[in-house]
Amino acid sequence: MSSALENLKLTKKILDEQNIPFxxxxxxxxxxxxxxxxxxxxxDITVLDINKVDLNKxxxxxxxxxxxxxxxIVPEYSLRRNxxxxxIWTKAFRDGxxxxxxxxxxxxxxxxxxxxxxxxxRLNIWxxxxxxxxxxxxxxKANYGDWETPRKEWDWRFDPKSIDHSWRTDI
Length: 171
Prior knowledge:
Elements: H1 3-17, E1 22-24, H2 26-35, E2 42-47, H3 55-59, E3 64-69, E4 76-81, E5 84-89, E6 92-94, E7 97-103, E8 107-113, H4 115-118, E9 120-125, E10 128-133, H5 136-144
């Protein structure tokens, strides 16, 4: 088993033990859903209440904190284990939208319809059942546009269709 998949499965176990629902997110979701693969360098998940995540549970299982983005509304935890990054994202629900921010020297606000995260669909892959956003195809289209065609030149800082700089992130 690859280190990325091992980390993802261990993350599932840790969050299940804490009774914290989560879903596969971003490229992790896209590759799992479209290609039945996992990115070997980076895995992404979303939890709806990041404040419930006990980072000590991750540290006790060999994860180290890579960095924490402490935005007051949509913080992100980035951990690392066996050379593979794990990003734990959260969502803020406003005006029918689920908002989050990517971070790269500045905030990159993004959103999709909140219905994708008010309930989850399921994906049976890697010998486990995983939560995925409701109407996964609709979510992937809102975030990636043509998600069915792989793009090697994809840049997460500029290319997502969900980027919207109209949201005030300086709160």
